[in-house]
Specification:
By secondary structure, chain A is mainly α. Chain A contains seven helices and no strands. Classes of the chains: A mainly alpha (228), B mainly alpha (108).
Chain lengths: 228, 108
């Protein structure tokens, strides 16, 4: 019995019984998280594939479609989201170095920036609804699109599918971070164990990477060709 | 636990680089480079994503097994794009020349 008591004493409370050390546990968690992110890469990959293919078929419609998107709002959102990745990285760092108060503050800041992103996205969507540029029965084509109207509708369908799925990931990330922030507030993390903060960070950065590709592909690409 | 702790200036430096690259990609979007616009936009996005993966997601300081997992994901994404595009892009390459009716691949 004394042996058992001794073992329980040296074991970190967060160490699950199937692992030898916290390092091994963290390594497993990291691998598992990346495996999940790989499935996410393929999940978004299907949509990027559809985007590529239709862009190849309908280049004019893609140029016209990207002009319908607000480059200022898209650009501001890019800055906001990359900023939230910085605050997330700093949240992980302060958990690593043992500053729980700073961890909570950085996490709250990350969530606030995520919220700003979603509000701006909401305004963009509202504008599209107002203009009847949402694919479906009420979709209204512009004179300027000429014969490419239906193909612009395909572009906008992909725009809504890709940014909508991305926004859904942001909402899930927001919920995830609120749990992590609560745990940090309850002083559950230490330099010895901060795995949940690191894993939430991986997820948040992944969502940022998706946007890093969505922004140029939807808002920027083919924009210049219109002025030629 | 011995996770790698990066210095603060590395994080701020990466953030600065990401902002700079964002500014460049927006600027280039207004210059007509023909087909190169797409190449430049994608190259900058790949560079930005690489910076996030290596430094914000700590993959540079992770185990070789983790690095392998990450590389596997992007490798299969490339397989998806390449195999699909080799099909769609090459369709019609091997069909007969157009008939007088002008329809590709339709027998006379």
């Amino acid at each position: 019995m004394s042996n058992h008591a001794h073992a329980a004493h040296v074991h970190h409370p967060a160490l699950q019984h199937q692992f030898e050390t916290l390092e091994q546990q963290q390594e497993s968690a990291t691998l598992g998280m990346w495996l999940f992110l790989v499935t996410e890469i393929m999940f978004f990959g299907g949509l990027f594939m559809a985007y590529l293919l239709y862009r190849l078929w309908y280049p004019q419609a893609w140029a016209l479609g990207s002009l319908e998107l607000d480059i200022v709002l898209g650009g501001v959102n890019t800055v906001v989201l990359i900023g939230s990745s910085l605050t997330m990285a700093l949240a992980v760092r302060s958990a690593q170095t043992g500053f729980p108060r700073a961890t909570v503050i950085w996490l709250l800041l990350t969530m606030a920036l995520g919220l700003v992103f979603l509000v701006i996205k909401g305004f963009e969507y509202a504008h599209k609804f107002h203009d009847h540029h949402v694919p479906g029965p009420g979709f209204t084509m512009e004179e300027a699109w000429g014969p490419h109207g239906q193909q612009v509708e395909i572009f906008l369908s992909l725009y809504f599918a890709m940014t909508g799925l991305h926004a859904l990931h942001m909402v899930i990330g927001f919920g995830l971070l609120s749990v992590i922030a609560w745990m940090a507030y309850k002083r559950r993390f230490s330099p010895g164990w901060y795995t949940p903060v690191e894993m939430a960070g991986l997820y948040w950065h992944f969502v940022d990477i998706v946007w890093i590709f969505l922004f140029p592909l939807l808002y920027l690409v083919d924009r210049a060709h219109h002025f030629a | 636990m011995s996770g790698h702790i990066s210095p603060l200036r590395l994080y701020y430096g990466i953030f600065g680089a990401l902002m700079l690259l964002t500014a460049i990609t927006v600027g280039v979007a207004f210059i007509n480079l023909g087909a190169l616009n797409f190449t430049v936009a994608i190259s900058i996005a790949v560079l930005k994503a690489t910076l996030v993966v290596l430094f914000f997601m700590h993959v540079k300081f992770s185990s070789r097994l983790t690095k392998l997992f990450v590389a596997t994901g992007f490798f299969f994404l490339l397989v998806l794009f390449t195999l699909t595009l080799t099909d769609y892009v090459s369709r019609g390459w091997l069909t007969a020349p157009p008939s007088e009716a002008g329809q590709l691949g339709r027998p006379r």
